[in-house]
C-alpha cells in the first residue's frame, strides 16, 4: 500500500482479518479475494490484481473463513459450507469451505467506502457519462419507483445509496436486505436484515416476510437491496398499492435482459409471466442499467422503462 493512501479504512474492533488485514484496510480497495491456491487479489475499482508475495496456506485460509463468518453471527462448517455475512459498518464477507470449494477455502470480501458517495461525487467519477444526471435527480424528486440493474460489481448499490441519500430529510426510508450493504447518509433510515436458520434449521426470516413487515412501518420509500426471489412479488405488490418512491436492485446483463430476469423471479414467487408483466409495468417507473467499462469506470449505460407488447409480453425499452 502506498504511503499517500491515508487514512486507512477503520476496521471493526475485535475482528481479525489476519493476512488480509492490510488489503482490507486500504481505503481505495473495493474487493479483496482469497483464492483456493492461497493467492490474494485486490480490486481498487479498475480490476482485481494479485498481491505480490502473499500466500495463505489452506489451513489458515479455512480458519480465517470460519472466524470471519462467525464474527458476522453465522456458522461456517461442514454442515453449512457456504455463508454470507455483514461485519461492522457494511463489510460483506462470503466464505466457502471444501468440499463445495474442492481445493481450499475461498473468501470474498466486498468493502464499502468509509465516506460514502453522493450524486455529486458519482458525477465526478463518470457515473452519468451516458445518461444525464438530471434524469436521476428528476426520478428522486418526483418519487418514481426505480429498478437499478446491472451485473455484479457494476455499482448498483453505490448508485442506489446515493439516490436515496438525496431524498428529502423528512422522508422515512425502510431498507430490506439479505445482508446489509447499502450505506445511506440520510437522517431517517430503518434497516431490516434477513436471518438465516439456526443449526436446527429453524428461525429463518426471509426477505419476503421482511417486506411485509416494512409496510407496517409507514415507509415513505420502501427499498429492497437486491431482488432474488419471492420478495419481488411483495415489492411489486407494495409499489402497486400507493407506495411510491420505492426502489430495488436486480442482476441483469443488459436492459433487454431485465424482463427475462423479472419473469424468472416471478416464477419463483408463483406468478405466471403475464401476471408478472402486468404487475411490473404498473409498479416500475424507470429502469437504470449500469455497466463497468474496461478501465473499471462504473456508470449508467441506459435508462429505460418497462412496457407490454401487443401480445402481452414484457419488454424493456430505452427512454
Using brief descriptors, characterize the structure shown.
single chain, 319 residues, alpha/beta, Beta-Lactamase, Rossmann fold, 2 domains, eight-stranded mixed β-sheet, six-stranded antiparallel β-sheet, 9 helices, 25% strand, globular, disordered N terminus, TadA family conjugal transfer-associated ATPase, P-loop_NTPase
Give a short summary of the structure.
The protein has helices spanning 21-25, 58-71, 119-124, 133-141, 156-165, 207-215, 231-239, 258-268, 273-283, and strands spanning 31-34, 39-43, 48-55, 82-87, 91-96, 106-110, 146-150, 173-177, 189-193, 221-224, 247-251, 286-292, 298-308, 314-318. By secondary structure, it is α/β, with parallel strands linked by helices.
What's the SSE pattern?
A: HEEEHEEEHHEHEEHEHEHHEEE
What is the CATH homologous superfamily assignment of the largest domain? P-loop containing nucleotide triphosphate hydrolases
Topology-level CATH name of the largest domain: Rossmann fold
Helical content, roughly? Answer: 25-40%
Lateral arrangement of strands in the main beta sheet: 9-8-10-11-7-12-13-14
Protein name: TadA family conjugal transfer-associated ATPase
Family: Belongs to the GSP E family.
InterPro entries: P-loop_NTPase, T2SS/T4SS_dom, T4SS_GSP_E_ATPase, TadA-like_ATPase
Domain Bacterial type II secretion system protein E: 99-288
Task: Describe what this molecule looks like in 3D.
- Belongs to the GSP E family.
- It comes from Protaetiibacter mangrovi.
- Residues 99-288 form the Bacterial type II secretion system protein E domain.
- With 319 residues, the chain is an alpha/beta fold.
- It folds into two domains: 18-110, Beta-Lactamase (2-Layer Sandwich), CATH 3.30.450.370; 119-318, 3-Layer(aba) Sandwich (Rossmann fold).
- The chain has helices spanning 21-25, 58-71, 119-124, 133-141, 156-165, 207-215, 231-239, 258-268, 273-283, and strands at residues 31-34, 39-43, 48-55, 82-87, 91-96, 106-110, 146-150, 173-177, 189-193, 221-224, 247-251, 286-292, 298-308, 314-318.
- The chain starts with 20 loop residues before the first helix and ends with a strand.
- Strands 9-8-10-11-7-12-13-14 form an eight-stranded mixed sheet, sandwiched between helices. A six-stranded antiparallel sheet has the order 3-2-1-6-5-4, covered by helices on one side.
- β12 and β13 (298-308) form a beta hairpin.
